[in-house]
Amino acid sequence: MYTKQASRLRFKFMRDQLSDTQYHQLNASLLRNFQSLPMDRIAYLHTFLPILEKREPNTFLLIDYIKANYPNTKIVVPKSDLQKNIMTHYVLGEQALMKNKWGIVEPEGSTNQVAVGLIDAVLLPLLSFDMEGNRVGYGKGYYDRFLSECRPDIRKIGLSLFDPVDKIIDCEAHDIPLDSCVTPEKIWVFSK
């Protein structure tokens, strides 16, 4: 059993300890498992863009796979408003990408904004998750606020380079659990 803070510290440390080879192997395995997810009914897929220096799952690999195999699926990425702690969402196209002050890669400019209600599924960043689908992020609440605005039927798919912990003991009412989580070992599916 872990508190959110203990879980954050443990999994940040574990990520930091990964060699380049381990990191690339874990991402290759995560991609293989991701490829087994049914994506044919997803018109708009929201994904985070990774902070590679923090060893986040490399969603650029997943984006390339989706573009090649599901060309009608629109990839949607967030742009953070660091003053208001909210995100806006844009179709990923040919626009340039830039890093914000936190090192998060975001689309430059503000064209092709997407209404939250159009999004069918979201790939969620996390530091850890538990056997019940509770996720632990960086603690700013961006994704919990975003998910609370989404349709109730949106698919919430976590991405993790590590397996779950047994239980996160300090989850709160506003924490929105995952429907599933893709790891290098398997896809974890959670009952509602």
TrEMBL record:
InterPro entries, A to Z: FTHF_cligase, FTHF_cligase-like_sf, NagB/RpiA_transferase-like
GO molecular function annotation: 5-formyltetrahydrofolate cyclo-ligase activity
EC primary class: ligase
Enzyme Commission numbers on file: 6.3.3.2
Pfam families: 5-FTHF_cyc-lig (PF01812)
Superkingdom of the organism of origin: Bacteria
Parts forming coiled coils: none
Keyword terms: ATP-binding, Ligase, Magnesium, Metal-binding, Nucleotide-binding
Cofactor dependence: Mg(2+)
Stored Gene3D superfamilies: NagB/RpiA/CoA transferase-like
Catalysed transformations (reactions): (6S)-5-formyl-5,6,7,8-tetrahydrofolate + ATP = (6R)-5,10-methenyltetrahydrofolate + ADP + phosphate
Family: Belongs to the 5-formyltetrahydrofolate cyclo-ligase family.
Protein name stated in the entry: 5-formyltetrahydrofolate cyclo-ligase
